Amino acid sequence: MSFLILEDGAVFHGESVGAPGRAFGEAVFTTAMAGYQEVVTDPSFCGQIVCFTAPMIGNYGVADTRLESSAPHSTAVVMREARGPAWTDWLSEQGIPALTGVDTRALVLHLRDRGAMRGAVVTDGEPAEALAAVLEQPSMTGAALAGRVSTTEPYAFSAEGDVRIAVVDYGAKRSIMRRLATYGAAVTVFPHDVDTDTLAGFDGVLLSNGPGDPEPLHAEVAVLRDLLGRVPVLGICLGHQLLALAAGLKTSKLPFGHRGANHPVLEVATGRVLVTSQNHGFAVERSAERAPTYVSLYDDTVEGIAYPDLHARSVQFHPEAGPGPHDAWPILGGWVEEVRNATS
Hints:
The protein is of the alpha/beta class. The protein is 24% helix and 30% strand. It is built from ten helices and 18 strands.
């Protein structure tokens, strides 16, 4: 018997099409209609069971050029209809349990009503035994996961460029570094525990996306607090949240998060609406001290903040996309140009 079981006891049956066994994680859903391989290899999905809302997944195969990291980070995958064999063979080879034939509409409605929660994908077992194991798993709240997905050593992603950018890898997607290099930056990637002085030696610092709860990352926040004002900083996703904590703001967990490639965001200064790629379960709380520069048109949550006095700004969404629309590409390109002008 193959199934997904949630911590509240709800069971969703399906057919196993990935690796055998069982996998635990926070059950979440993404509304992206393409980019399934990018989703599974996005480090921000570390520790999560991903349900795709799109009705058919795997219909255009797989390719190494679509990988956002060197290995998958989703613990399991849940689909309405999996197409193969390339996609399902790839999941099996990567050791990822996966289900097809699941009523994903019912599952998504359940998660929207009750919130993201712990769960398990089981390819051969009994629900009662699996539920007991699920209830022993840690919550995503309080989970410091950046150290699990970050590089352990610095490396040069792109040596050529007229502006030197340091990327702090809390779980960085390759698309971020590729986009920076496209805009003419020499990109060096550092581990999540890099020190302040090392970062201050670069022309600009980009704080990457990543998984888990930002609040327990006290050491990383302390580094950013010391860095602010010394060098231009741009934060993305988890980097946005850590920057906010360093500036004295607060974060909290969303009921079911924002995950997809079709999230509308209002650019406050212009009234322009960007269709964005998103993947996060936590958000920065509103504050009278820092008005948001971008706002979600789904739930009015903070999607961006500027700190002009500290030469820093950040966005909750993914301007590099990968997968997703390219509306926000100019945010990265414009920031690189600003850093370039500041150094000339």
